[in-house]
Specification:
3 helices; globular; alpha+beta
Length: 72
């Protein structure tokens, strides 16, 4: 999966989020289905984007305790 395409897709999802500050819980299964790629490719792509410093991730401290992504 092309990293830049994934980043642009995730970036537009986060920017369109209504949360303040901008963040979003990203379903890797949904993104994989929309992009027509395996779920593992999306998961590894997101991990690479976090490692590169283009995205920041954290877990919510209240239920549902999901992992959320923010632009760095």
């Amino acid at each position: 999966m092309e990293q830049e395409n994934l980043f642009q897709y995730v970036q537009s999802m986060i920017i369109s989020s209504t949360h303040r500050p901008k963040y979003m819980s990203i379903s890797t299964v949904k993104v994989a289905d929309l992009l027509g790629v395996p779920c593992t490719a999306v998961e590894s792509g997101l991990k690479n984007l976090v490692a590169e410093g283009r995205l920041k991730t954290t877990k919510l401290d209240q239920p549902p305790y999901t992992e959320v992504y923010m632009l760095h």
